[in-house]
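Input structure tokens:
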């Protein structure tokens, strides 16, 4: 039976400190499949999962969305979720009610994400005492990115304020929102009332109408009424440059506070300093409205799509929508550009589509706009972009404008854009951008290719244009855990599926709270006091240190360490490997953890590797487990605590076991044999005993990390590496994938390295004593480029470093005598 279990364990094998595969050293912008948006709750039962419970937003996600810094935020129906390289997809909140309940718009400014729509409360995505905690918030709320706390905005219900007594959500929906640098919130409505744009003034904490209001109806001279079935017009898009607010929608003129009237078809600027309206060129004429104008294009338009999007980059204001000319009669197909300072019309390319019946180019549709590093990304229903048909560039639904200093700027495509399997246009819907990614949300379902990457948009997948890799490292100031909280050394860290951080070490107190070798931190670095107290009770008093920690797929937590020598031979269940439940209490179903002490020392468990929820392989200094000889170092332990034959063993102590993929392992420590083969301190072997390779080092090996190209980094107290000990590499070396020494890699270290990490973008982080680089360096951290040269841009300092963990593709955890810190890419 155990052999069968081992076979299953092989098939389910994974390592919690996963090896993250990212192309390194050179970066080319490219399309990528964005993982499905996970609308499931972090805990508790699933609620409103798209496509499975009849919720109105099932199927493709169609935004809206917004990006800032290293994160993107999207809403769909009753959910809001964030994406970051740190946390992946994460539900932030949801709202419940009748069929009209929904988040309608989203904005982000500084440390807050704002949502507005038809809702009376925002629920948190977790359960407390059998219920979802919530915050009462009438139609508008904000989320604190740092603390994860929701709060209401405004001192009353927006729809029952003195200026909106005649309005209700089902008739006048919110269509747009933006927040300026001062925290003032602007909300646009779809209504024929003058109050189609409202402002929450942060200083006075009151709602008010912006200026003297709007009026609309017949737009320009083309005869298209910008109205819906109820005769309403409205504000469709908002953006700001910090002070000024740019407004687009179905209006014809605005009124200032002094009752003067300004003609401004479809676009206008609110001067935030002088509190008056300014025109944006002649405005836009003949907006093409769903249900009003019939499309001649070779694809079907979404009638739910907004006619306008607006974006600001520097002094450039871009407007995208369904229009053919400006109010002066100048051709302007789907895209317009203005000066944010003077309001003047600036040169702008046209968007072109194909009339399939006539075989001619016609005006295309602008749907979404996003800003990234000064560039403007343009999405919509168009195949070409250019100033005329003769020079138009084929882009297929998505393009980029770059401000190159010229009057026109430069337009370019994103690979071959968006197409279906028959090379028909698959237009982009809403888009958003953070520092390194552009997210493209589908305009409609169907199989879509982004470049040559298949994006199955009939699910809720999202296409992601990756524009840059974050390669520099800095200290994360938002992570609260510092040396102040720890009274001694951190030896190991692990991360749970919910983002909480397990810390193992020589610990008795944390910020004044008693603990015993193990504490758990929340994702922001604060202490999980309940878990820590339970773990303190669960771990025997005779433990001195916890050297390793891991979590299996069921959430059970394994801890290995050492303590009083006589404890190795005490009753079953009291040795130096134990299992905790997810709340920190002792799992009493895990028994028989009796280790036999080696002749020269007391027993220790130094390292462990998880195999799903089936077994754990442990390494260290011990000669037996549960009465079975272990050749001084290794044991495979099943989930009930019983022994099984280990997949490898050494004749000395194991400091580190690293899974390399394809059932192969790298083992480092202080030994002379590996599974009966001559091997000096570091080697590799297959799980079935095949594929042995004596990598070799003339001193102890403490850390191992595999690069994405298969090369193997080793750290320790050695001066040479290689089976013949001829490779001069003090404390840090690298083996080629075939087992030979990489002689091109020769970083300069002064003292022993305790750990090493192959970063996802090619750089290498090493940790050790404060004199790691030199006798007077006073820093236990060093970072190297892929070729082994020192990264002089890395300036984070730390004392003695014992462990490094790639927490996510954008963060690294560091542990040692200075507690736990988090590094982040930028």
């Amino acid at each position: 039976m155990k052999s069968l279990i081992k076979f299953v364990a092989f098939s389910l094998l994974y390592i919690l400190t996963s090896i993250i595969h990212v192309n390194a050293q050179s970066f080319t912008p490219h399309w990528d499949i964005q993982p499905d948006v996970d609308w499931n709750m972090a805990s508790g039962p699933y609620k409103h999962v798209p496509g499975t419970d009849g919720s109105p937003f099932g199927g493709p996600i169609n935004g809206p969305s917004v990006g800032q810094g290293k994160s993107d935020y999207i809403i769909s129906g009753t959910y809001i979720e964030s994406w970051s390289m740190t946390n992946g997809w994460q539900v932030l909140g949801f709202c419940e009610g009748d069929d009209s309940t929904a988040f309608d718009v989203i904005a982000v400014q500084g440390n807050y994400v704002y949502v507005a729509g038809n809702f009376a409360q925002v629920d948190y995505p977790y359960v407390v005492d059998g219920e979802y905690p919530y915050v009462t918030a009438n139609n508008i709320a904000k989320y604190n990115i740092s603390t994860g706390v929701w709060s209401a905005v405004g001192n009353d219900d927006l729809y029952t304020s003195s200026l909106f007594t005649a309005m209700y959500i089902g008739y006048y929906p919110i269509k747009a929102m933006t927040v300026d640098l001062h925290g003032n919130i602007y909300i646009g409505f779809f209504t024929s009332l003058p109050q189609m744009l409202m402002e929450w003034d942060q200083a006075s904490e009151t709602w008010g109408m912006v200026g003297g209001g709007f009026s609309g109806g017949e737009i320009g001279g083309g005869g298209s009424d910008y109205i819906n079935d109820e005769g309403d017009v409205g504000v469709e898009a908002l953006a700001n440059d910090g002070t000024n607010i740019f407004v687009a929608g179905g209006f014809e003129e605005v009124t200032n506070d002094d009752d003067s009237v300004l003609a401004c078809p479809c676009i206008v600027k609110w001067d935030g300093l002088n509190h008056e309206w300014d025109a944006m060129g002649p405005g836009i004429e003949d907006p093409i409205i769903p249900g009003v104008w019939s499309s001649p294009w070779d694809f079907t338009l979404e009638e739910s799509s907004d006619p306008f999007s607006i974006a600001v980059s520097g002094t450039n204001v871009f407007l995208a929508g369904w229009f053919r000319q400006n109010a002066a009669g100048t051709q302007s197909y789907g895209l317009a550009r203005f000066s944010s300072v003077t309001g003047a019309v600036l040169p702008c390319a046209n968007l072109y589509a194909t009339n399939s019946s006539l075989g001619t180019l016609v005006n295309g549709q602008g749907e979404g706009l996003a800003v990234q590093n000064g560039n403007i990304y343009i999405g919509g229903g168009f195949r070409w972009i250019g100033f005329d048909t003769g020079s138009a560039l084929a882009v297929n639904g998505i393009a980029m404008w770059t401000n190159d200093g010229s009057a026109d700027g430069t337009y370019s495509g994103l690979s071959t854009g968006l197409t279906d399997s028959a090379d028909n246009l698959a237009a982009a819907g809403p888009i958003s951008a953070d520092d390194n990614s552009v997210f493209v949300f589908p305009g409609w379902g169907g199989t879509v290719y982004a470049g040559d990457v298949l994006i199955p948009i009939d699910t809720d997948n999202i296409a992601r244009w990756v524009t840059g890799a974050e390669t520099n490292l800095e200290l994360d100031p938002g992570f609260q855990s510092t040396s102040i909280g720890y009274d001694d050394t951190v030896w190991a860290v692990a991360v749970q599926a919910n983002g909480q951080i397990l810390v193992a070490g020589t610990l008795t107190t944390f910020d004044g709270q008693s603990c015993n070798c193990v504490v758990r931190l929340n994702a922001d670095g604060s202490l999980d006091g309940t878990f820590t107290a339970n773990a303190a009770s669960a771990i025997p008093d005779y433990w001195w240190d916890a050297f390793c920690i891991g979590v299996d797929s069921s959430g059970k937590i394994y801890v290995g360490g050492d303590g009083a020598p006589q404890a190795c031979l005490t009753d079953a269940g009291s040795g130096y490997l134990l299992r905790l439940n997810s709340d920190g209490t002792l799992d009493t179903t895990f028994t028989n953890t009796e280790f036999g002490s080696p002749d020269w020392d007391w027993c220790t468990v130094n390292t462990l590797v998880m195999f799903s929820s089936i077994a754990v392989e442990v390494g260290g200094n011990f000669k037996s487990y549960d009465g079975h000889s272990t050749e001084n170092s290794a044991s495979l332990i099943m989930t009930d605590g019983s022994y099984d034959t280990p997949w490898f063993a050494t004749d000395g102590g194991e400091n580190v076991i690293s899974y390399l993929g394809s059932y192969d392992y790298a083992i480092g420590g202080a030994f002379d044999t590996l599974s009966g083969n001559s091997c000096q301190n570091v080697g590799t072997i297959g799980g079935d005993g095949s594929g042995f390779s004596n990598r070799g080092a003339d001193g102890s090996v403490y850390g191992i990390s595999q690069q994405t190209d298969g090369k193997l980094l080793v750290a320790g107290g050695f001066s040479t590496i290689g089976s013949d000990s001829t490779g001069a590499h003090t404390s840090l070396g690298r083996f080629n994938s075939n087992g030979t020494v990489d002689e091109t890699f020769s970083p300069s270290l002064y003292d022993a390295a305790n750990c090493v990490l192959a970063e996802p973008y090619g750089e290498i982080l090493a940790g050790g004593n404060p004199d790691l680089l030199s006798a007077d360096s006073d820093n236990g951290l060093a970072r190297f480029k892929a070729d082994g040269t020192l990264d002089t841009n890395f300036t984070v300092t730390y004392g003695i470093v014992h462990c490094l963990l790639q927490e996510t593709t954008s963060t690294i955890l560091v542990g040692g005598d200075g507690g736990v810190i988090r590094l982040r890419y930028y």
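The CA atoms of residues 261 and 563 lie 82 Å apart. The chain has a mean pLDDT of 77.
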